[in-house]
């Protein structure tokens, strides 16, 4: 490695460290503020280490009856989990059909589907809400779970992975009398585990952090999800930052745990789909 490469590598390392610092400072402030009394939460200059360490903010978040944080936590976890599982099922079926089955108009239908990705999602809000209202799903779990199950991105991601699976495996199974569904369920899905985990992680995080749609289709406090509930807490507590940051930390824990356990599959899953960065 010549001197120019060494200098370039060091500059890149310094730049990445600075960017990482900018990313981690807000997180450290959130955690620090959640462990402070309210009187210290808004003090200036910022005290990164609390003078008085307290867990009362977390206890208050769990114990208050007028703000059902645990109900919001359950709603977010239940909706995100069920939505993710159903999305994996439907998208993997569609991806299998587009990648392994042969039928007239397959490629035209697939690329027409890809074209819908250029439509901004916000344009679907009004007609989608009208459909949800007609079905009587407003303020119901169905309104939070079913919209968006057919993800074009998910179908594309899984299709790219399925294409890379050797056709000889499928041909050998057909010779043994296996049906298309058996091949999909017993051969394709087990081999597609990395891409399924990547899609599950993206889907769960997107659903867990979704704010706009749950705000539109839920009307009662018991049906709110965590992002909407945190916005309500700002008004409920007159922006008591310590309690709000405690609730924010709690809301981030499931996603962090999921990412820690699934991170080894992320690069592998995306790389095997053939998508270039």
UniProtKB/TrEMBL annotation:
Per the record, membrane topology reads: Multi-pass membrane protein
Please give one Pfam family short name: BPD_transp_1
- Where's the ABC transmembrane type-1 domain? 73-262
> Which residues fall in a coiled-coil region?
none
- Cellular component per GO? plasma membrane
Localization in the cell: Cell membrane
Gene Ontology biological process terms from the UniProt entry: transmembrane transport
Reading the lineage from the top rank, the first entry is Bacteria
| UniProt-recorded name of the protein | Multiple sugar transport system permease protein
| CDD domains assigned to the protein according to its UniProt record, in alphabetical order | TM_PBP2
Family according to the record: Belongs to the binding-protein-dependent transport system permease family.
Keyword Transmembrane listed? The answer is yes
Query: What keywords are assigned to this protein?
Result: Cell membrane, Membrane, Sugar transport, Transmembrane, Transmembrane helix, Transport
List the InterPro entries hit by this protein, alphabetically: MetI-like, MetI-like_sf
Which segments cross the bilayer? Answer: 12-31, 72-96, 108-129, 141-162, 183-205, 244-262
The keyword Cell cycle is annotated on this UniProt entry: no
